[in-house]
Amino acid sequence: MNISYRWLRSIAPGLQGTPQEVAERLAMLGAPVDEIVYLGADIGDVVIARVEEVRQHPNADRLRLCTVNAGGGERLQVVCGAPNVEAGGLYPFAPIGATLPGGISIGKAKLRGEVSEGMLCSARELGLGRDHAGLMTLQGDFAPGTRFVDALGLDDYRLLIDVTPNRGELLSHVGVARELAPG
């Protein structure tokens, strides 16, 4: 059974302890935790960026030059090939030095003679889906520079509980919260 640590804490606000401590308590209750996974591990460096300007790349028909606000007051130039990039849009942005799923390291790059200071990301590049046709478009009132995992609620842990047949009450978040809640 996959349990969200964050969701568990919202159901049982009095629940104390780290994900590891909660896993130990579950093991003492007869429901060992096989695995604890931090959901934002591979995308912790990604932030939300607002594209302020989009113009055609001078040396490539299918590329565009984007002026990006990724927080901190600095404007960055990013070369982008996604067909859905628009001025004013909010997108996940991997700055220089970020690492994406699959061990992809983001560095300053020159594409067809133009410098790119990071990467605007699709859901597939973030390991969040299979869509690679365009950038992952974000809806909402997010400030540029906001951590992507915080904005989307991915700053969470998943606990994989080994539920035995006699512990059916642990097959839901509410059941696990009841077992762990104080009092």
TrEMBL record:
Tell whether Protein transport is among the UniProt keywords. no
Q: Which GO terms describe its molecular function?
A: phenylalanine-tRNA ligase activity; tRNA binding
List the EC numbers from the record. 6.1.1.20
Q: Give all residue intervals belonging to the TRNA-binding domain.
A: 40-149
Catalytic reaction equation(s): tRNA(Phe) + L-phenylalanine + ATP = L-phenylalanyl-tRNA(Phe) + AMP + diphosphate + H(+)
User: Which keywords has UniProt assigned to this entry?
Assistant: Aminoacyl-tRNA synthetase, Ligase, RNA-binding, tRNA-binding
* Binding partners and assembly: Tetramer of two alpha and two beta subunits.
The text of the family note is:
Belongs to the phenylalanyl-tRNA synthetase beta subunit family. Type 1 subfamily.
Q: NCBIfam families, alphabetically?
A: YtpR
* Protein name stated in the entry: Phenylalanine--tRNA ligase beta subunit
Could you tell me which species this protein originates from? uncultured Gemmatimonadota bacterium
